[in-house]
Amino acid sequence: MSAKQRLIDRVEADREEIIGFLRGLIRARSPNPPGDTREAVAYVTKYLDGRGIPYEVVGPDPEKPNIVSSLQCPTNGRTLVLNGHVDVFPVGDGAGWSRDPWGGDLVGGRVYGRGAIDMKAGTTASVYAYAALHDLVGELRGRATLTVVSDEESGGRLGSGWIVGNVPEAMGDCCINGEPSSPYTLRFGEKGILWLNVRVSAPGGHGAYTHLSPNPVKIAAKMITELEALTNIPVPYPADLAKAIREGRDAAERALGPGGADVMSRVSVNIGTIRGGLKVNMIPRECVFEVDLRLPPGVSKEDVMPHVERIAAGHPEAVVEVARYDGPLWSPPDGEMAGIIRGNARLLGVDPKPIVSLGGSDLKFWRERGVPSYYYGPTNHGMGTVDEYVEVEELIHIAKVHLLSAYEYLKK
Fold it and tell me: Taking residues 26-35, what's their average pLDDT?
């Protein structure tokens, strides 16, 4: 029996353990905001304790702890980092859910609950693969480092960002995680994030006296319409990315939904919040809205802001402030780990195509330091909305690919 078949059989034998771990992790509530992940982190450390695996709990915020554990192999070599986060989107009062969002229910081959996709299934795969490597350490070279973090949903600076800057063994030579992507795509890069706060101010007044004051809500509405033109900014993709994106177009449509391939390749504009006005018969004194721009590789803040400033210049009542910027980052779509992951997925009957992610991830902290980083996870079902779930077969598939790929990388 080949070594890889032995690992595949091992995951199948541990199927109930993997499913059970995920269900328990979902029950360990960790919504962000507020971001208190202590219950979820304690759940993971209990699992590691049960297997005698040492670790450290680190980080600058005691309510948002992070786990770091390293396995040193007998022979020196490269370091592979397995990364996953345990904080998840909030659920409010749970309205609209047909099942308990914190229940981890297993129904019809699916595990339901907040974080089932984003990203407790992927974190389960990373934790499981890391634990399995301890039994294989005699066959490996180098080091494996597990990082289970908090704060990803708020930008990651208290989690992966802090770890990369403060824990040397967490830097590594390569990093992988299991953010939602679908078995049919391998994410080698991600769009950048540019968040804007726009505040429109005017004297205000009685609603019948519209000749005395501009209306900030009307001005905001005009600006929002004009900002949509940002989607037409040209995207000068680097040649290797352009080739990969062309080849992965059909897979992107399948993984991202109809129209996803087009959105992947252009600036996207979302108005996340808008607030203005006190009463129907008053002219508001202020309207504030927030803009979420996602920038594909090849486009930077410096490319976009002149367009924004020209729009703002046509509305002197408006002030635009940059609230957050994470530039688009990517690793080689044909890099070594990309080939390893694709080869192991093919072994299991799937050929994932490299594409760029629409959303951000913690892998930006490794990519911006030049560490090749990729993620391969389950299909998005309900991420950020109600009745989030993961298909059990996809969970098991992802666990197999992560273990096989970690083993192959450290076997060399």
Answer: 97
